[in-house]
Structures are given as C-alpha cells and as structure tokens.
Amino acid sequence: MTLTESAPEVRPAAVRPPAPARRLPSARTALVAGSAYLIAFVFLFPYLVMLLTALRPQEELREATYLPQTFAWSNFANFWTGGLAQNLGVTLQVAAGSTLLVLLVALPAAYYTARHEFRGRTAFMVLVLITQMFQPTAMLVGIYREFYQFGLVDSVWSLILVNGGFNLAFAVWILHAYFSSIPRELEEAAFIDGNGRFGALLRVTLPLAMPGVVTALIFTFIAAWNEFVVALTLTTTPSNQPLTVALNSFIGQYQVDWQNLFAGSVIATIPVIILFALIERKVVGGLTAGSIK
Amino acid sequence: MTTLATTPAGPQARARRAGPRPRRRDGLRPWLYLLPAAAVLLPLLGYPIYMLGLLSVFDYRQAQVSGGEPTTFVGFGNYATLLGDQRFWSVLGQTVAFAAALVVATLAVGATLAVVLSRAGRVPRLLLSLAAMAAWAAPAMTGSTVWMFLFDADLGLVNQVLGIEGFNWFYDRWVAFGVVGATVVWHSFPFVMVTLYAGIQAVPASVIEAAALDGASAWQSFWKVLVPILRPLITIVVIQSIIWDFKIFTQIYVMTNGGGIAGQNSVLNVYAYQTAFGSSEYGLGSAIGMVMTLILLAVTLLYIRALHRRGESL
After folding, report:
1. What distance in Å separates the CA atoms of residue B136 and residue A203, rounded to the nearest whole number?
2. Which domain range does residue A55 map to?
3. Which residue of A158, A187, B159, B227 is most buried, as measured by CB atoms within 10 A?
4. ipTM exceeding the 0.95 mark
5. pLDDT tens-place string over residues A272-284
6. Residue A100 maps to which CATH number?
7. Together in a domain, A268 and A162
C-alpha cells in the first residue's frame, strides 16, 4: 500500500495505472478491526482466566479482583510435587509413542499409493478415509475387551496403540498429498544419477515431503496428547493415567480444586498450542482431504 | 494464507498429468508397503468393531464378566430392548438436536469470522488467528474446565458480571446444554473459520468488485456471490462439523459430571459409556455403540460422495 502511495512522486502519474477502487470507508475498517479485537479477546479470555486462577492463592478465589493480590506460584510447584509430573510423563510417552508408530506405518503406505497405480488402491484410500471418521468413543466396549484379552489394560502400551490406530488415517492422507505433489521425474533423475531406488527416496523425495511429514507428526502428537475418553476407560491406576484424565480427578462431586486444576491445565495446554502454531496452515488442507482447490 | 489453498492441490495437479505409471503386474508388491498400515488398522479398528458387534448380541453384564453366570446369546435382544426404551429415543433425539444446533452455531460463528478475517488489517487478523488457534489446539478437557469455572455458581465470573448470586447454570437441562454448546463451538469454530477464510482468499477480488459495482451490499455479495462459489467447500465443512458434533463426549462428561442431573444431558456417546461402564451393561452398551457407529458410517459415506463430486481422486 505504501508503495502505491509514494510512487507518483517518483514516476510520472500517467504511467501508473489508477489505484484500484477497493479501499473501504475508514469507519467500516475501524468497525471490522474493532470487532476483530473484541472477538479475539473474548476467545482468549478463558485462557486468561485459567492462567490468573492458577496463580491465585486459595483464599483469593472468592474476591473479584482482576489480578491476584499475591501470586501463588505454589500451585505450579504442587504440580511437580503432587504426582502430576508422573502423569505428564505418561502423556509424553503416549504422544511420542503413537507418533512414532504412525510415522513408521503411514510413510510406506502413503508413498506407495502416491507413486503407483494398482488394483485395490482406491479401495485402500476409501477405507483409510472411513477410518478417519471412526471414533473410539462408540467402540469403547470393543476396545476395552480387546486389551483386556491381551492383558494390556491399564498400561501405556494400550494407549499408544489406540492413539496410533485412530490417527493413522489423517497421516496417510496428508502424506499421500505431499508425495503426489513431488514430480516423479526428480526421483527418477536421482535414481539415474546412481542412487538406488531407496537412496533416491531418502535423498530427494523425503526431504521434499518434509513439511508434510512434520505436519502429520505434530498433528498425531497433539491428538494423542489431548485424548481423554479412551484413557479414562483403559487406565485405572492414578499413576498410569495421562494428564487429561488425572486432571479430571480434581473435579469432585461437590468441590473442585480450581487452582491446582488450572495450574495443571496450563501445563497441559501450552505445549500443544505452540506445536499447533507451527502446522496450523497445513492441517486444514489435510482435514478436508485436499479439497481446497 | 494463500499457500494453504495451493500447497496440496497446485503441484498435485501437475503430478497427476504425469500420472502414476500403470503397472502391468501388481503382484504382492503393493501389499508390502500397505501391510504395516493394515497390520495397525485391522487389530485396532477392525477387531474392536467385531468385538462390539459380537457383544451386542449377547447378554453380557457384570455377572458374566466375573463368570458368575454363563454368557447367553440373545440375538437382537439388546437392540429390541433399546428400541423399546423410551430413554434411548429421548437421548437419540437430544443427540441429533444438540448436534444440529452445534453445526448451525459453529457455521454461523466460523463463517462470520472468516469474513471479518478477510477484511481486517494485519494486526487484528493475526490476533484473531492466534485466538482461534489456541481454542483449536487445546485439549477438550482443559477447555471444558475453564468454561465450567466461568459459569460456576459461586465463583464464576459470569454470575458476578450479571450480578446474580448462586445461579446454577448446570441445573436446567437446556441451560446446561447451552453452556456446554458454547464450549463446543469455542473449540470447533476455528476449523470452519480457517477453512472458509482460505476459500474466500482463493476467490478473485475482481468477482467481489464486480458485484459491488453492480450495487450489491456486503450482505448480498456474501450470500449471492461467495456462498455459491464456495458451496462445495461449505458442503465438506458442514459434513465434517456434523461428524465432530455428533461425537461430542468430553465436554458433556466433564462439564455436567457424567451427563447431568439424572443423566438429563446425555448424548448417545455418554449414554453408551454410562450404560457399559457405569451400569456394567456391556451388551447393551455395545448395541448403543453399534447404532452410533452405523450413523457415523452413513454420514461418512455422504462425505465421500461429496468429495467425489468435487472431482477429488481417491
């Protein structure tokens, strides 16, 4: 914008095409900007409340001051001493484990379906798409029964497997889209240059598909980190529960331990927001299965 | 943001022209690559569904689990029980109505904000995107607890601001649904907003300008120009929202303490969970789960058809 405005001083005005008549009246612009600020504030407000409550001492909960009068960092200290650190560890194991599982399994499938035409390819992709819509909640009895049979109830492994399984579809789809977007000529050139098939894949295709790989990994990580109902059903020992389930136990029938709940919630929320900020733009394309054209 | 619209699609089209090379003999080679995925999907999705279907035709309760009573085959007995149960129908109706309201609300909020986003300046746009992202990424669990706190009868900010003492927002069925619904919309509007925003960005500015020159108001150009152009995208967003809002569990379970007073805020998922794991009626719970799965499958098939219509190659 500034360029267009300063340009006439440098060049003869006649040469410049007339500025596009697209400028909105300033009152409307201000209104739009104002409402955008207001809406953003309203949507961020719950997080502000979460953070401030986590920093309030117990006695101050009933007083309606905007900022805590004394900052109680002890609520965060309680997180580490009160055993929740162990639950954070479980969450990390589940998220990392299922991400690794998805990576190992989705990469070959996505690569092959993107590169080769074969009988059953469409069927496979449709099947993957259907599983993306499946949800563990409706199938809980079946899932519980299965892990019960294999003696994996109340273990980190069951959570890793379930989260990996239910997030596989999205990873396959987004990786498939990325692999399809890389011209096969590039890979073939590398192959002819003396790299093996695998070498060409490793040195040329995979680096080019990296943004897709990172997106799929972070998305899986976040989904597994946030998962609630499967963990609620499959884990019973408090120290085996991931953070989301452990935090739920702060909510009693008659009383809620708000400060400690929110201190834990802040810790459970911040990492995923940061991770999500890295991939947000790419996720949308994957969620609509490449439907934005 | 425009990269969003073109990243997967643009180069993909180029690759398609080159086309995957047709292979003369497929042999077993494809399955070498697909086997790991199949090895995860089958036991983790296929087997639980099989188990769910199997248990749903058995009388399977706590007594059978502990081995006190033999497991008996009851055919469609559990389904018959469900269909004859007034409560099942009321929960089903509630689920559909709640999901429908959520889809409408999410779409209204998401679409409005997508338009605001496309007109706002750099700084407000960034801030709004950040707010949306924070709501999108957060665990449903922690989001639910904050909203619960905001509407808490004694400590909640909402009661303080409105100046009402001790009003319990979770006491009345529909008020409670309203609060939970607001939380769900807060979680799910960002997807709609960001997707539609990307769609709007892809519409050439000249089209909107032409409409404005012809004297269309902003309202008219939204309904008469943008919506028809974006219709395929909107279809997909609507179906995705239906699927998401139908699956709601965490917000209701956490905010209404497992389904509200006497289970008045139950939706199908919560009802299935409570039947199976609350009352140990595993067979009956499985039957509810099967009903839920079948409904979702039907919506998914609609989704695939909508994708197919867009010329999406599967």
Report:
1. 35
2. 29-72
3. A158
4. no
5. 988 888 877 666 5
6. 1.10.3720.10
7. yes
